[in-house]
Design brief:
Helix content is 31%, strand content 23%. It is an alpha/beta fold and 473 residues long. It has three domains: 79 residues, Elongation Factor Tu (Ef-tu), domain 3; 283 residues, Rossmann fold; 89 residues, no CATH class. The strands form five sheets. An eight-stranded antiparallel beta sheet has the order 1-2-8-5-6-7-4-3, with no helix packed on it.
């Protein structure tokens, strides 16, 4: 072993297991330290320290260990955590999962290098999120409003159009304005997009979608594709969030972070955990899955010392559409709600297939109302939710006794349910509705029900909006 500037080098390793290299005689090595691994031909691979002991270090190699031998492998410890360059010039560029450019352009001229693990935020420095984001999608803006600085995941399933929905949100998201006022043209978001384990066609879809809409110039893409090393997936979201923190807290920008697919990230974490021989928890995932996810999701929000913000939209596919699976289950505990996509609505050709009843935005109440959206927004949303929930009960009853045996009011609820799905939830993939249009559609649909059924709205709101028809319909 020979000492190097800022680190040390070891020739020969004790064990190689999958992407894991076990090094003995490493001396004083730190957790999460960056490692350079050289094969017998001197070719370089990078890795990081996962575990340290008295005379041993466990290293994960990002590019895998194929071609490495026990005797000829050289491991160089650099004495510092993994850092990536951060600069505003990274917007409009495409990088691999480790932050290296793959779009044919030059290395970005970095303002400085930042630790991918981020900087801890003092809880007392956080600003409570209160400004709503207008996505142009009624089921989100009207029923599950997204607030700037919120983390709101998309719970999807295999084959559902979550990619299309995420791309639409990226194109349309602006800082919201009260109903009747146009959103500020300067309120567009910088986008940091991280893909983990996605197929080439999915990555190409996002890139083409951003380019066609003109959004690509404000998007930084970090791509770890399905045929890239799984170990690299553990770094990809952290590299993306490091750039987001720089843009938000040092460059005063509003940043929207899209992370897809978090299920692939968790699978990679489970794979590494199993190789290390750790005691598994539910479904083989490591017991620290919750804290690992929280270390990324909590890199969101606003702080007192910056005008910028980070809003997260993680996307995860639920295996077998099981919302109790460990990945969506733990994600729901950490984040402030969830948007759930429905396979049944997809089969009815309804886009976006957002299942309103299991979806939730816990910060919605603080981002809507007088001066933010409209004074009736909260009551209208509650009434739509209650009416649509009753529709499910009526549908269950109709499946037993038949629609013709239902009461007149119950038949009105069935008509409301069909119209709600077809006119409120459903909208084209290029349709960008203002908050005024969303609320107007909601009142027009409630006017299909008798006034005495509308118990969640005030008499003044009924007098002002009930029975009014949208001039565009």
């Amino acid at each position: 072993m020979k000492e190097l500037l800022g680190g040390q080098e070891v020739i020969g390793v004790a064990r190689i297991e999958g992407p894991i290299v076990v090094v003995q005689g490493a001396g004083s090595v730190g957790y999460d330290e960056v490692v350079e691994v050289f094969d017998s031909r001197g070719r370089l691979r990078r890795g990081r320290v996962l575990e340290v002991g008295e005379d041993i270090a466990v290293v994960e190699v990002f590019a895998g260990t194929t071609g490495l031998s026990i005797d000829d492998t050289r491991v160089r410890f650099l004495g510092e955590p993994l850092r990536i360059p951060v600069t505003e010039e990274m917007l409009g560029r495409v990088f691999d999962g480790l932050g290296e450019p793959i779009d044919g352009g030059p290395e970005p001229l970095a303002d400085h290098y930042a630790d991918i693990n981020g900087q801890p935020i003092n809880p007392t420095a956080r600003v409570y999120p209160r400004d709503y984001i207008q996505t142009g999608i009624s089921a989100i803006d009207g029923m599950n409003t997204l607030v700037m600085g919120q983390k709101l995941p998309l719970f999807s399933g295999s084959g559902l159009p979550h990619d299309q929905l995420a791309a639409q949100i990226v194109r349309q998201a602006t800082l919201g304005a009260p109903a009747g006022e146009a959103p500020s043209q300067t309120a567009q978001f910088a986008i940091v997009f991280a893909a983990m384990g996605v197929k080439h066609d999915v990555a190409a879809y996002f890139r083409d979608s951003f380019a066609e809409s003109g959004a690509l110039t404000r998007v930084a893409m970090f791509l770890n594709l399905a045929d890239d090393p799984p170990v690299e997936r553990l770094v990809t979201p952290r590299a993306a969030l490091t750039l987001a923190e720089y843009l938000a807290f040092e460059r005063q920008m509003h940043v929207l972070v899209i992370l897809t697919d978090m299920t692939n990230y968790c699978e990679a974490l489970r794979q590494i955990s199993n190789i290390r021989g750790e005691v598994p928890s539910r479904k083989g995932y490591p017991g620290y899955l919750y804290s690992d996810l929280a270390s990324m999701y909590e890199r969101t929000g606003r702080i007192k010392t910056s005008e910028g913000s980070i809003t997260q939209l993680p996307i995860l596919t639920m295996p077998n559409d099981d919302i109790t699976h460990p990945v969506p289950d733990l994600t729901g505990y950490i984040t402030e709600g969830q948007i759930v996509l429905s396979r049944d609505l997809t089969h009815q050709d309804i886009y976006p297939p957002i299942a309103v009843l299991p979806s939730l935005s816990r910060l919605m109440k603080d981002g809507i109302g007088e001066g933010r959206t409209r004074a009736d927004h909260s009551h209208l949303s509650a009434q739509l939710y209650a009416a649509y929930a009753h529709v499910q009960d009526v549908r269950s009853l109709a499946s037993v006794i038949g629609e013709e045996e239902l009461s007149t009011v119950d038949q009105q609820y069935l008509q409301f349910g069909r119209a709600f799905e077809r006119e409120f939830i459903h909208q084209g993939p290029t349709e960008n509705r203002s908050i005024e249009e969303t609320l107007t559609i909601g009142w027009r649909l409630l006017s299909m029900l008798p006034q005495e059924e509308l118990t969640r709205v005030s008499p003044a709101e009924l007098q002002q909006y009930y029975g009014k028809r949208d001039a565009t319909h």
